[in-house]
Write a structure and sequence with these properties.
The protein has about 350 residues and is of the alpha/beta class. It has two domains: about 130 residues, 3-Layer(aba) Sandwich (Rossmann fold), CATH 3.40.50.2300; about 180 residues, Methylesterase CheB, C-terminal domain (Rossmann fold, 3-Layer(aba) Sandwich). A seven-stranded parallel β-sheet has the order 8-9-7-6-12-13-14, sandwiched between helices. The chain has a five-stranded parallel β-sheet with strand order 2-1-3-4-5, with helices on both faces. A two-stranded antiparallel sheet has the order 10-11. A hairpin with a 2-residue loop joins strand 10 and strand 11.
């Protein structure tokens, strides 16, 4: 049984969410709270498996409560919020502070159409219940890395980084350890909806020394440039004469496909690729890494010890296509040694 604490300042929302969750026989709503301070107290008393946490609340807001929960009683948290400009940036901050995932709250402060997202909420509660939110020291690398290749050895020309649940924080940790002098372009495929990827890109840009932007159709892939795959599209890579470009296509899937991007890169770069798969649920990226490995490229996955969800990395390991398994703080260093 998955024990859930529902936190929202709206009585209607608390009742609606509780009723919705109770339709799943494997979920038990152990209690509710109407502000962050009460939520923190009940997390300590009840030890729920998952907390469903609103952002805008009196006394103690959701971000403050999240910070306190992760510091004092680490528990998987799902952020429930709208998607206007202010909320988008706050949700991204919450993911960096340790929230497992977010759920789009329908428009309006009361959200009478909340049952439209019932399946999404229940699915994410199940996912969050198996997430690893133990406090891990993810200090960003401070040293400068040089490549470990011998003179004359073939250089990698592109780094592809795929991530899902827990990915925003993990990706920032990796990118922050990459020097501006890297001799390859970097493409990040983070499972994220189109409302969020522009702000995710801007957040990375503020925190990391590299040239970072959300990818646009026909963008050039160049050394030292980091392109974030936009939500709402499938991101491919094509050769245009002597240059390599991003090619966006409308995707039928809700989220970007890591496999799609990696396989398209293999057709252009062959084995001159480093593929990296970080924390995430499911198996997306595993077949992409296999394609990279089969072409002679190098592959890295995040170790279970630092993953929020050890799904995608494990799927790649099970396919037998992984060169190196390393904890998150060591991934940037490993990338540079493979260059």
């Amino acid at each position: 049984m998955i024990k859930v604490l529902v936190v929202d300042d709206s009585s209607f929302m608390r009742k609606s969410l509780s009723y919705m969750l109770k339709t799943d026989p494997t979920i038990e709503v152990v209690d509710t709270a109407d502000n962050g301070a009460e939520a923190l107290q009940k997390v300590k008393e009840l030890h729920p498996d998952v907390v469903l946490l609103d952002i805008a609340m009196p006394m103690m807001d959701g971000l403050t409560a999240l910070t306190r929960i992760m510091a004092e009683c680490p528990t998987p948290v799902l952020i429930l919020s709208g998607v206007d400009k202010k909320d988008v940036s706050v949700v991204l901050k919450s993911l960096r502070l340790g929230a497992v995932d977010y759920i789009h709250k329908p428009a309006g402060s009361i959200s009478y159409d909340i049952d439209e997202i019932r399946d999404d909420i229940i699915t994410k509660v199940h996912l969050a219940s198996i997430a690893n939110v133990s406090m891990i020291d993810l200090c960003l690398p401070e040293e400068s890395y040089v490549t470990g290749k011998t003179p004359g050895a073939a250089r990698k020309r592109i780094v592809l980084i795929g991530a899902s649940t827990g990915g925003p924080k993990a990706t920032a940790t990796v990118i922050s350890g990459i020097p501006q002098t890297i001799s390859a372009g970097i493409v990040i495929i983070q499972h994220m909806s189109k409302e969020f990827t522009p702000y995710f890109s801007e957040q990375l840009k503020l925190e990391c020394p590299l040239n970072i932007s959300e990818a646009e159709d026909n963008d050039l892939i160049e050394p030292g440039r980091v392109l974030v795959a936009p939500g709402g599209f499938q991101t491919g890579i094509e050769k245009d004469g002597m240059v390599k470009r991003i090619r966006l296509s409308n995707g039928a899937e809700k989220l970007q496909s890591i496999d799609y991007t990696m396989k398209s890169a293999v057709r252009v770069y062959g084995g001159d690729i480093i593929g990296v798969l970080l924390t995430g649920m499911g198996s997306d990226g595993a077949r992409g890494l296999k394609a990279i490995k089969d072409a002679g490229g190098s592959t890295i996955v995040e170790d279970e010890s630092s993953c929020v969800v050890f799904g995608m990395p494990k799927a790649a390991i099970d396919l037998g296509c992984v060169d190196t398994v390393v904890p998150l703080p060591d991934i940037a260093k490993t990338i540079m040694r493979m260059m």
